[in-house]
Amino acid sequence: MTDSKFFSFLNICGLSFLLAATSCAQNKTENTKTDSKPQTPKATAGVYVVGKVYGEAKCWKDGKETNFINNGTEARSVVINGDDIYIVGNTRQESSYTDIATYWKNGEAITLTDGSKSADAKNIVINGSDVYVVGSEDRVAKYWKNGEAVSLTDGKTRAAAIDMVVNGNDVYVAGLEGRVAKYWKNGEAISLTDGRYLAHASAVSVVGENVYVLFNQSGGDKALIQYAKNDEIVTLTSGKTNASANSMFVAGDDVYVAGWESGDAKIIARYWKNGVPVSLTDGTKSAGISRIWVKGNDVHAVGFMSNGSKDVATYWKNGVATSLSDGTKNGEAWGIFIK
After folding, report:
1. Phi-psi region at 282: left, alpha or beta (left = phi > 0; alpha = psi -120 to 50)
2. pTM of the predicted protein model
3. What confidence tens digit (pLDDT) does each residue in 50-59 have?
4. 10 Å Cβ neighbour count for 149?
5. Which residues are CB-neighbours of 307 under 8 A, at least 6 positions away?
6. Across the strands, what pairs with 70?
7. Which CATH class is domain 46-338?
8. On the CB side of 338, how many CA atoms lie within 13 Å of its CA?
């Protein structure tokens, strides 16, 4: 082999080596990037809880924080449907600081509003292949079905939709319009209160032929927690203390209502089973329940409990509390689903 051919051979080999090395480096970098991305979540058995910590949406599974949400400001509710994880809450448009109604399916964000008006998404329901989200936008109570908005009010009076259930072809929504607690069945409004006191309906459930709607009335420092079972009104508190209930769960003949009631010094996390109060805290530190879930003989609840300086996102199972956030920043849990 002549010298010129030898050097040509070296140059080719060197070039090939450099190309191979560069390709390997690129592959390594690409692989590193791929590996660092959050994996697409897949629903497995466990307890899923959502909420927020200091303006950041959070999701915990079996007490451990997950990466199921990106860039959310708050997460209100979670639903598992097969292998899919749906979480609803809000994101924020940074330029205008406007909340955008959003839900996440397996970690991917789907926005329902464009940020031109303030919006709030409260709950999510999966019915077959249809995705329903309930909330409000610019004083209008509404829900979205597969991304299409359905307005329940005209916007002349402040209104909000807070909870919903889909039963067959019927859509029930609980919320408020002005000072009146209301629910809507297929868009038709039914008033639960007369407007003398501030009121709102916070939960709705349909079991068989029975429609249950939870609502609160307040005036001054006193409040009533009530629910309607069809045309019957059940009152849970005396009205002598401040109180509020956010969640209802109907299991067979048992009706569970959860929220808080003021004690001697602090508010107490409390639920009512068939009208009988059950306290989860002793009143030495403020606490409240946002959502309750009953499975078999176990009662699960989520909310917050103060550590003396900050509110801590908290999960209770049969009265035993587990802290979800570390207590260095304010946090609260709002939704729970058990698979």
Report:
1. alpha
2. 0.87
3. 999 999 999 9
4. 16
5. 285, 327
6. none
7. mainly beta
8. 13
